[in-house]
Design a protein that fits this description.
Blueprint: H1 2-6, H2 14-27, H3 35-46, H4 64-72, H5 76-84, H6 92-101, H7 104-111, H8 118-126, H9 130-138, H10 146-155, H11 160-168, H12 173-185, H13 189-199, H14 203-214, H15 218-225, H16 231-239, H17 244-256, H18 269-273, H19 280-292
Amino acid sequence: MLALNILRPDAGGNSALAGGMNALSAALPAATTDFHAARHLYAVRTEAAPLPAEAVPPSPIRTEQDLVVQLARMPIDISAPLLKARLSMLDTQALLALIAATGEAHHRLIAGRPGLDWRVIRALIRSNSDEVLLTLAENHKLEFDAEDQAALARLSESRVMLRAAILANPRLSLAQSDVKLNLEDGLSHRNLRLVRLLRAGDAARFIVGAAQAIGCEATALQRFLTGASATPLAMTCRALDIDRAVFLSLLSCWQAGHDGEPQCNAAHRPLVLSVFSLSACDARRKLLASLAA
């Protein structure tokens, strides 16, 4: 009866929950009236190893919400549609229970949900998972309090991608201030000036200053930077001895002034960031060779 009630037409997230119920039904053994088969199954169950003392059995299913939470605790390929759906039954208490009972795969999907309560956000931050933290910082539909922003900024010190996500999220302004201060600590006076020019939207003066530092013509560098790939900007930053964390923050500034170009999606990003395995001298030589070609 609970399943029928949840799947009624006026309930939200019906298709997601139906998928979870279908997967659950498929996972259950088929009923049998064969006496010998039943005896065999009973023998297997009675000979199984006992549960460890610390194992906690799932709570009994008494309500529709209990059923949804139990389904959401199942393996991620079954529970993913539920965690992605906007089911009112997955409220703060239900999500906190799921965080306590599941692992990173479930936590990532929870972190991508809109409008999470601060208690859920804090529980996800305490998981200290790189992927979960990155998903939180990339979620522009969340409100973060000052304590959580400070925690994200602190955790980003050793996580380049997290720093970039913080700098790209307008809802993390307090964290951005801390991250920018940390990034600027390691910059030379020349590079700090160049970074501030690009952050202010002055790409033309950035190109002129970068060309002078690298030893090339500004017009040639401008042509090099014009295109659909983010690799030239990465190569320019590396030639200037600017690290990849600063590059990722500058990329969004460059894109803002160039109609979103160049694109740098998840598939292309590893290739772009591979530039930073080069030394600054090697990157400068490669850049100058590209300009001369």
